[in-house]
Amino acid sequence: MAMGNWTRISEFILMSFSSLPTEIQSLLFLTFLTIYLVTLMGNSLIILVTLADPMLHSPMYFFLRNLSFLEIGFNLVIVPKMLGTLLAQDKTISFLGCATQMYFFFFFGVAECFLLATMAYDRYVAICSPLHYPVIMNQRTRAKLAAASWFPGFPVATVQTTWLFSFPFCGTNKVNHFFCDSPPVLRLVCADTALFEIYAIVGTILVVMVPCLLILCSYTRIAAAILKIPSAKGKHKAFSTCSSHLLVVSLFYISSSLTYFRPKSNNSPDSKKLLSLFYTVVTPMLNPIIYSLRNSEVKNALSRTFHRVLALRNCIP
């Protein structure tokens, strides 16, 4: 398209679920609002309990606290705007707002990949070197590992968002998604994006595969160590410390891989929206539930915290 025909876009329109009847959109609003509130309360509760209960001051719960904080941020980036489009039918988002949403989506997404790998390494050290675990995973080391998990999100989000929004946009400003994700926004660009697309594909593969390989490596060593444990009770106890993390990893990687690595011929906008809903909205809600229901230490800590709160209330005249 000629330079003279390019128009400066000041805002985008998120198409979201506009093709659905109003009654269905109202039902979706109530559903997503419930999920959103459960996500915020569940992850906030995990953060508060792991901070308040001395029994949960181990490295495992330090990283779980980071994961819960990350899930809250991930939800705050996506869900409020989506709820607004469903309730008030205000589908517009400013140019800067769209870029900001995409930046933090990349930031939290990349951070989660590496944080899940860090949590796998923590489980590897705990099971394969239990006697040295407190020394290896001391307070300084866990802080460095947490920082190393969060840091890659900054350069990835900065480069990809800045590069994409430096392109000229022309024609329609309608983003066929419920948030500003890279592929639907890229379709609105009227310039040669071949180099950017190569970078995006290579970057996504590295961001997904490097942590995934680290997780596989850790769990291969963990599986070998568990098989050497003579008693069935010991094996079950060792595996139970990893089962919650394994389930969370599976949910995140399967849904995100199906979203971004499926062939384009099988990747309709509607199916991508459904898959995106799962890892951006549903998974952050499931994580605290998984860690609460499948972890006796968290359940016991929640019970102790609840009884302490009741005792305090009874003491107040």
C-alpha geometry: globular
Average per-residue pLDDT, rounded, comes to: 86
CATH class: Mainly Alpha
The helix content, as a percent range, equals over 70%
Task: Please tell me how large the radius of gyration is.
Answer: 22 Å
Task: Specify the number of helices.
Answer: 11
Low-confidence stretches: none
Total beta-strand segments = 3
**Strands of the biggest beta sheet: in what spatial order?**
2-1-3
Q: Do you know the CATH architecture?
A: Up-down Bundle
Number of domains: 1
Instruction: Tell me about the largest β-sheet.
Output: 3 strands, mixed
CATH topology: Rhopdopsin 7-helix transmembrane proteins
- The fraction of residues in strands falls at under 5%
- Fourth-level CATH superfamily: Rhodopsin 7-helix transmembrane proteins
Structure commentary:
This protein has helices at residues 22-52, 59-87, 95-128, 133-136, 139-150, 153-164, 182-186, 194-227, 232-260, 269-293, 296-315; strands spanning 11-14, 92-94, 174-175. It contains eleven helices and three strands; from the N terminus they run E-H-H-E-H-H-H-H-E-H-H-H-H-H. It has one domain (11-304): Rhodopsin 7-helix transmembrane proteins (Rhopdopsin 7-helix transmembrane proteins, Up-down Bundle), CATH 1.20.1070. Helix 1 (22-52) packs across helix 11, helix 2 (59-87) runs antiparallel to helix 3 and helix 9 runs antiparallel to helix 10. It has 317 residues and is mainly α. Helix content is 74%, strand content 3%. Strands 2-1-3 form a three-stranded mixed beta sheet. The longest helix has 34 residues, at 95-128.
